[in-house]
Amino acid sequence: MTTINAPMPSLSHRASRWFSRNLIRIYAALAFIYLFIPVAYTFVFSFNDAGKSNLVWQGFTLENWQNPCGAPQVCEAVVNSLQIGVISTVLATILGTMIAFALGRYKFKGRKSTNLLIFLPMATPEVVLGASLLAMFLNLRVNPGFWTIVISHVMFCISFVVVTVKARIASLDPRLEQAAMDLYANERETFRYVTLPLVMPGIAGAALLAFSLSFDDFIITNFNSGVVSTFPKFVYVSAARGIPAQANVIGSAMFFIALIIVIVGQVVSRKRKKI
Amino acid sequence: MANNKVSQDTGDLKLDRVSKHYGDFCAVDDLSLIVPDGSFFALLGPSGCGKTTTLRMIAGLEEPSAGTISIGDTDITTQKSYRRNVNTVFQNYALFPHLTIFENIAFGLRRRGVKDVKSEVESALNLVEMAHLAERKPNQLSGGQQQRIAVARAIVNRPEVLLLDEPLGALDLKLRRQMQIELKRIQTEVGITFIHVTHDQEEAMTMADTIAVMNQGKIEQMGSATDLYEAPKTAFVANFLGQCNLIKGKITSRAGDKATVTAKGLTFEVPLSRVATSNDSVFLGVRPEKLRLDDTGVNSIKNCVVTDRSFVGTSTQYLVRAPWDLELVVFEQNDEGLHDLRVGDTVSLEWDPEHTFALDGAGDINAGADLDDEE
What we know:
The complex is a heterodimer.
Chain A lengths: L10 H11 L1 H23 L17 H4 L7 H32 L5 H13 L2 H14 L6 H25 L3 H9 L4 H30 L2 H6 L6 H9 L5 H30 L1
Chain B lengths: L12 E10 L2 E11 L4 E5 L6 H9 L6 E6 L2 E2 L10 E4 L11 H12 L4 H11 L15 H13 L5 E5 L7 H18 L2 E6 L2 H7 L2 E6 L2 E6 L1 H6 L4 H6 L4 E11 L2 E6 L2 E6 L9 E6 L12 E13 L3 E7 L5 E7 L12 E6 L5 E4 L15
Parallel strand pairs in B: 3-8, 3-9, 6-7, 7-8
Antiparallel strand pairs in B: 1-2, 1-4, 4-5, 9-10, 11-12, 11-14, 12-13, 14-19, 15-16, 15-18, 16-17
C-alpha cells in the first residue's frame, strides 16, 4: 500500500462487505448441504462395519460393497423392485403415450372430462389409493402379490406419463407432419419417422419418471403386495430390528447409477450441439 | 414401405371452379386457373386473400369444398398429399429438427424407395450451394441456409409442381433479393413448374412469368408483370401493384378507337382497348412516372400546386394537388429535363392517352392501396 493517509476500513466493515458479496454463494452451499446430507450419510454408513444395527459408526469396512447380497432377502427384494419397475414402466409408458396422443391430437366427446380424470390419481392420497385397491383385489378374490403390485403401479404411473407426453405433443409443430406427408410419407411412415422421434424425448422422460415412482413406492405397495417384498418394503420392515448396511450400499449404488446416467446424457447432448 | 404410387404424367396444372369454405367463411371462391407446365407462376395478394388456401389445396393438405384440381389428365382433387407428385417449400421451412440436412433432403427419396439416394441428395445440395452443410442439424443453420435446404428437400424429388408458400418472408431485405435471383436461377435450371405465393408485389414481379392477383378468394387479374402494371383491369390491381393515380370520371363518348372521359369539367382521352369496363362511370388511371410537368399534351390538368417533394436518388417524387380534391403522385427522372420544383409552386400535368387506362368506377377507388406492407 502506497497511499498513506487513506483510512483503513474497519475489520467488521470489511467482513460485512465480504459477507454481502458472497451471500448468494453461502446460501447455495447451505442449500446443497441440506439436500445432500442424507445421501452422504447413507453413503458413509454403507462402509460401516455394522453387524446387527447400522445406527452407530463401528469402523470402516469394504465388506458390505463386496457382498451386497449379504443380508438375508435384500437382493430378492431389489430384484422384485427392478422387475416390477421395468414391467410397470413399459406398460404405463405404452398406455399413457397412447392416451396422450388421443388427448393431444383428437377432438372427441368427453375429452375435457378425460383430461380432468387423468389428473385425479395424482391428486388422491396414496393411502386412499392403496387401501381401495386392496379392497378391490380382495373383493375380486385376487390374492395380493407380484402382479397386484404391477397393476397398482401401472395405474398411478399412467397419469404422470400422460401429462409428460401430452406436453411434448402440444409443443410439436403440425407443419412438420404436413411436410412429411408432402414428401411422400403416408400416415404410418409420418408417425414412425417424424412424429414419434420428435415426441421421443417426452416419452423417455415419462418412462424414467414412471420407473423411479414405481421403484420408490412404499405406501401403495405395502397394501397390495401380500407376502412379496420390494426394496422399500424391505427397508421399512427391517427398520424395526436394524437396517442392514447392505441397504445403504444398494441405496448409494442407485444414486450413483442415476448420477452417471444424467452426466452421460449431458455430455452426449453437449457434444451433439457442438457438431 | 416405399411402394407409394405417385402419379407420373406431366402437364399443365388446372384448377376448375375450386371453392373452399370454412363454415360461413369463403376462403376461395369459384376459382379457375391454368398454370402451364414449366412456368414460374405467382399467386399475389394481401393476407387473407385465399392464396395460401389455394396452395394447400394443390398440395393436398386441404380438400376443396367444390371443384376439381388436375395435373395433365389426372384428377388429383381428392388424392392424398403423399400420392401427389407435388412438393412444398413451407413458410417457415418446416425442416425436420431431428434429422441432419442430408437426411432431410433424402426423406422424400427414401419414402419413394429411390435407389441412388446419396448422389441425388448431393446434386440437390450442389444446386443450392450447401454441400458443406450436409451433416449439420437444421437449428445450426441461418435462416437463408434453411431456406435453401427447404428448396433442395422439395426439388430433389423432381415434382411436377413445386409450391412455395411465402418462402422469403422470414428473410431480411438484402437476403430476400439474393434469394429471388437464386430461386429464379434454380427454376430455369430444373424446368419444374413453380407456384409462388407471396404478398410482396415486387417479389412477384421480379420472379414470375405470370402473376395472378388474388383478392377475397377470387382472381382479380392474371398476366405478365408488364400487363398487370401497364394495363390493370381493376382498381385493386392498379393500387396493389405499384402506385397509381385514379381520377373519378364519366365516359361521354366511345368513337373509333378511343373513348372520351370527363372529370370536373376536363376531358381526357383513352384508347378503347384500355377501357376495362362497359360502364360509363369509370376511374381514369395513370402511373406516376407517366405524368409530365408540362401542359402541351392531350390529357392535362392545369393549375395544380406542389404540396410535397422528396428526392429519392434516381427520381424526385412530387405530391401535386389538382384544382379539386385530388392528390396525384408524380415521379420525375433526375436527368437534364429536371424541373426542380418547390412546395407551393403552381404546375400543370400532362400525359399521353396510350398511358391512360379506364377501370370500372363502381368499386372502392382505394381498393388494394396500403395492403402490401403487412410486415
